[in-house]
Structure formats: structure tokens, C-alpha cells
Amino acid sequence: MSQATLDDDELFDEAATEMREDVEASLAEARAELPDPDDVWDTEADNTLGVLNGLKGALDTGEAADHLRDAKKWFAMGRKADAFEDAEDLEADIESLESILTRITTAHERVSDLTATIPELRGALEDAADDGDDE
Question: CA 90 → CA 4, 97, 102, distances in Å?
Fold first, then answer.
């Protein structure tokens, strides 16, 4: 085996290690951006709209999706180059985080819909009550 080949193998191993570290770092950054469970659960509001607005804010994922995208990008590149000896753990972490982000995004959209609907509903109920008082 020539010296050049040995150097290439060493460089490839080093690059594979760095790529794995990049994936792991991006996943850690994505996890750090996830909402705090207590912020999603606990509330301090005087009314339903306040609760919904608080929950909508608590469900903000910041830049988690961007960090997950970086992790997926480096993981895909590393897998395609067959750079990872054991990629199952990374793949499982990516899938788990992606699932959590999807659930948070769905919850955020639902809360946003309710945040828009509740004031309209209140107005309609007030109008109905006023109409009943007129009769």
C-alpha cells in the first residue's frame, strides 16, 4: 500500500469523524431550541385568549428546523460516502427529532387557528346574546 493511499485513508477517517461530530452538534443545537416542557404546560393568563397566545409563544421552535436540516444534510452526505461505521443511532436521533418538530409545528398551527377563532366566536356569542335581549 502506498503512502498516498494510507494518507487518503487517514484523511477520510478524520473527515468521517468530523462529519459525525457535525451531525451530533447540529442535533444538539436543534434539541436546545425545542420549547421547555414547563413553558408548554404551565400558564399564567387571565383569559382563554391569553392562554392560547402564551401557548403559541411557548411552541416556538426557534432555529431548531434549520439545525435539523444541517444535521440531515451532513448525515446524508456521510451516509452516501459510506463514512459512518455505525449510522443507526444518528438516523434514529434525526427521525425522533423530526417527529417532535412535526408535532410541535402541528400544535402551533392548531393553537394559531384557535387564537384567531376564539375572539370571533366571542363576538358572535355577544351578538347572539344582544339579539336575545332585544326580543
Answer: 31, 11, 18
Question: What 8-state DSSP symbol labels residue 43?
Answer: -
Angle between helices 88-134 and 48-58 (to 10 degrees): 160
Residues in Cβ contact with 7 at an 8 Å cutoff, skipping those fewer than 6 apart: none
- What is the domain extent for residue 94? 3-134
What's the pLDDT tens digit per position in 108-126?
999 999 999 999 999 999 9
CA-to-CA distance for 52 and 55, rounded, in angstroms? 5
Interval 14-60: pLDDT, tens: 888 899 999 999 999 999 999 999 999 998 999 999 999 999 999 99
Count of beta carbons in the 10 Å neighbourhood of residue 72: 20
When divided into structural domains, the chain yields a total of 1
Is residue 88 left, alpha or beta, with left meaning phi > 0 and alpha meaning psi from -120 to 50? Answer: alpha
Between CA 43 and CA 46 the distance in angstroms is: 10
